[in-house]
């Protein structure tokens, strides 16, 4: 081949490569390196869907498809930059998020004008989350005030079973057809009382914020409190800590137990995810065990065995040891009164005298055992002095198991905020 032919061939190859590069898919711009300290300001513990033979209704659609889900949350501490953690932890198939947005929440399904921000994931506006995994968004600038409400909207373009959810949100979730993740307001086609795929909201922290996690069951989750009102006891505690650079994270799951799965994984299994891995965590308040004691003999746990006080105490001791291993202060809360609980429901039998004896033994150990760093006596704060195995009527939601709004406020007021972190 002559020199002229070689030169022509080389020029042709270079021209072909140049043209091909024009048509190649552009490489997404990587987000800038972020060295901020991030702290969780809100969380909802994920749980897996249960089968249709469980005693409580799921209250979820079997699938979401080409629909937008809008969920609101009240944060504890504020910040000028935010990130969102999504979850597919209990999914068996990849979860496709076609679009995700965060904004300041307005009334109902509306957002505050001008506050909408599109979320990206490694620079991309959509993301596929593998089964079993969480997914953290890139940071976005959004000025969120302490105790402010934000709205997270997710567009689901493919048929999607809500496999990872939070059953008892005490907050309305809005569902609408099409991609309306950035819409100023939506007219929902359906409303849910559960959360789907939303695990945490984080803020960039410049003030050395510390986080306290409330680990519990339905009494921590807020069952019996008013819908869309943020009157769970961790909500009231967040108000007490306002202005002190303390995030309060609610890791309650209705129906949760220390030793057994059922509605969510047992506390020993989820302690790492829901407590120890929370960014900024310094303390945890544990109030859980009444479902371990009381599901036996009810439709909730027809095959359960009786849980003795010794087994429950051993579970607490494991949580205490693991918290201390990570330098986390652990506060134990006594189990609240429950005589007459759910007696007018299909769950009749939730309370009996033998179960009450177990509760008393557990509470005695919490108060006197010296294993927890601090003890909060919710039992003493809520019980009726004339009949201490029952709630004081003013604090009872009406089902004799869960406090109402007034009872939840009393619980938060009972906590010595100085002792939560060991402050003098």
């Amino acid at each position: 081949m002559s020199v002229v032919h070689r030169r022509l061939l080389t020029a042709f190859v270079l021209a072909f490569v140049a043209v091909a590069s024009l048509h190649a898919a552009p490489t997404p711009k990587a987000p800038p390196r972020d060295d901020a300290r991030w702290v969780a300001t809100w969380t909802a513990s994920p749980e897996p869907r249960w089968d249709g033979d469980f005693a409580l209704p799921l209250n979820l659609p079997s699938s979401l498809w080409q629909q937008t889900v809008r969920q609101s949350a009240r944060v504890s501490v504020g910040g000028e930059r935010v990130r969102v953690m999504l979850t597919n932890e209990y999914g068996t198939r990849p979860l496709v998020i076609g679009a995700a947005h965060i904004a300041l929440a307005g009334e109902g399904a509306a957002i505050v004008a001008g506050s909408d921000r599109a979320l990206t994931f490694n620079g991309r506006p959509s993301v596929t989350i593998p089964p079993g995994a969480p997914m953290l968004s890139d940071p976005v600038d959004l000025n969120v005030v302490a105790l402010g409400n934000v709205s997270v909207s997710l567009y689901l373009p493919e048929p999607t079973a809500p496999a990872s959810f939070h059953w008892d949100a005490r907050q309305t979730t809005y569902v609408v057809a099409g991609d309306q993740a950035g819409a100023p307001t939506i007219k929902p086609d359906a409303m849910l009382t559960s959360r789907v795929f939303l695990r945490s909201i984080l803020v960039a922290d410049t003030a050395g914020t510390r986080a306290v996690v409330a680990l519990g069951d339905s009494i921590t989750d807020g069952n019996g409190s008013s819908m869309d009102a943020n009157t769970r006891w961790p909500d009231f505690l967040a108000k007490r800590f306002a202005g002190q650079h303390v995030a309060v994270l609610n890791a309650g799951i209705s129906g949760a137990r220390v030793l057994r799965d059922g509605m969510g994984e047992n506390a020993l299994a989820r302690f790492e995810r829901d407590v120890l891995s929370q960014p900024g965590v310094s303390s945890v308040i544990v109030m859980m065990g009444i479902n371990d004691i009381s599901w036996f003999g009810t439709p909730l746990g027809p095959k359960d065995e009786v849980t003795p006080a010794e087994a429950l105490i051993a579970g607490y001791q494991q949580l205490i040891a693991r918290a201390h291993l990570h330098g986390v202060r652990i506060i134990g809360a006594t189990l609240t009164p429950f005589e007459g609980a759910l007696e007018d429901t299909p769950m009749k039998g939730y309370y009996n005298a033998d179960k009450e004896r177990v509760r008393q033994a557990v509470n005695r150990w919490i108060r006197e055992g010296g294993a927890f760093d601090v003890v909060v006596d919710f039992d003493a704060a809520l019980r009726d002095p004339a009949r201490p195995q029952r709630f004081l009527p003013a604090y009872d939601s009406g089902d004799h198991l869960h406090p109402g709004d007034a009872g939840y406020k009393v619980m938060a007021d009972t906590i010595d905020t100085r002792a939560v972190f060991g402050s003098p």
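The two ends are 89 Å apart (CA to CA). The chain has two domains: 27-206, 209-424.
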